[in-house]
């Protein structure tokens, strides 16, 4: 009996050690956001030395809070320092990463899968200008106007990783919109489309202004249940500015949080 008890003690000790050294079971990450492009200030790194257009605001840095990233309520840079940001000067830029050029520059925090239809990053970190020289232009017609950027969200969130019925925020960060008309059209798989109007920067008299368009979307506009009870997110976003010869996008996302202006952080 003593030997048998000793053997049981050894087994229990071994099981305890195994439990202590074994990794904890994987825990699903709750959904936070699905993003096309990335939050990198239109790809301008570093920002020191970049100046803002003097029109409407006067001389100064483009990165007004000097935190190393161009954000809403700051400015696209006046690259040739001629006083403004426009297609006739040398303010064109192409700061896209390899992933953004390949249309795979997207990510999700809390997604189960990202569908193959997801795309649009090739429109980000790029000056949409008729005088651009990029060889791999996102529009099949080349840089000639109009340049109406399109972004497609197609993703799945596992049941339990998102709370049904909550608000989904649409966040779009863009720069130098100053010629009307322009609207953001958002289309869904199982809901009526939305038309989101955006303020022209000239209302504030600020050339090169970086803006954010945030809108509240209903959960059932973005998500529909899958056959196994998960949630399929689907939306198509088109920025329609047929008369504007110069604009740019940093990123567009569906998120549980609203984007805010840099000066309000």
Strand segment count: 11
State the helicity in percent bands: 10-25%
Biggest sheet descriptor: 6 strands, antiparallel
Strand fraction: 25-35%
Counted by DSSP, the helix tally is: 3
Terminal CA distance reads 70 Å
Tell me the Rg in angstroms.
24 Å
**Global mean pLDDT:** 88
What spatial form do the alpha-carbon principal axes imply? globular
Domain tally: 1
The helix-strand sequence is HEHEEEEEEEHEEE
Structural class: alpha+beta
Low-confidence stretches: 15-19
Structure description:
This protein has helices at 2-21, 98-101, 219-222, and strands at 33-37, 106-109, 113-114, 149-157, 168-175, 183-188, 194-197, 210-217, 223-225, 231-240, 248-255. The chain has 265 residues and is α+β, with helices and mostly antiparallel strands. It has one domain (28-264). The strands form two sheets. Strands 3, 4, 6, 7, 9 and 10 form a six-stranded antiparallel sheet that branches. A five-stranded antiparallel sheet has the order 2-1-11-5-8. Strand 6 and strand 7 form a beta hairpin.
Topology diagram in text:
Elements: H1 2-21, E1 33-37, H2 98-101, E2 106-109, E3 113-114, E4 149-157, E5 168-175, E6 183-188, E7 194-197, E8 210-217, H3 219-222, E9 223-225, E10 231-240, E11 248-255
Antiparallel strand pairs: 1-2, 1-11, 3-4, 4-10, 5-8, 5-11, 6-7, 6-10, 9-10
């Amino acid at each position: 009996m003593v030997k048998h008890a000793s053997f049981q003690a050894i087994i229990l000790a071994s099981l305890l050690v195994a439990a202590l050294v074994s990794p904890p079971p994987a825990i699903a990450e709750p959904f936070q956001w699905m993003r096309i492009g990335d939050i990198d200030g239109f790809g301008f790194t570093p920002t020191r030395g970049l100046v803002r257009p003097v029109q409407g605001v006067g001389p100064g840095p483009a990165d007004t809070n000097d935190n190393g990233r161009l954000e809403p309520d700051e400015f696209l840079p006046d690259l040739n320092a001629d006083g403004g940001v426009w297609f006739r000067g040398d303010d064109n830029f192409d700061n896209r990463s390899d992933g953004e050029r390949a249309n795979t520059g997207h990510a999700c925090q809390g997604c189960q899968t990202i569908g193959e239809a997801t795309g649009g990053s090739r429109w980000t970190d790029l000056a949409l200008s008729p005088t651009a020289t990029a060889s791999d232009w996102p529009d099949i017609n080349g840089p000639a106007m109009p340049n109406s950027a399109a972004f497609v969200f197609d993703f799945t969130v596992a049941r339990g990783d998102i709370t049904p019925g909550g608000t989904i925020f649409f966040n779009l960060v863009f720069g130098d919109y100053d010629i009307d008309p322009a609207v953001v059209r958002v289309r869904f798989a199982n809901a009526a489309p939305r038309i989101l109007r955006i303020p022209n920067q000239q209302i504030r008299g600020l050339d090169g202004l970086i803006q954010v368009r945030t809108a509240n979307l209903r959960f059932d506009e973005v998500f529909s249940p899958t056959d196994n009870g998960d949630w399929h997110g689907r939306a198509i976003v088109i920025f329609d500015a047929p008369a504007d010869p110069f604009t740019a996008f940093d990123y567009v996302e569906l998120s549980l949080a609203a984007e805010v202006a840099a000066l309000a952080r």
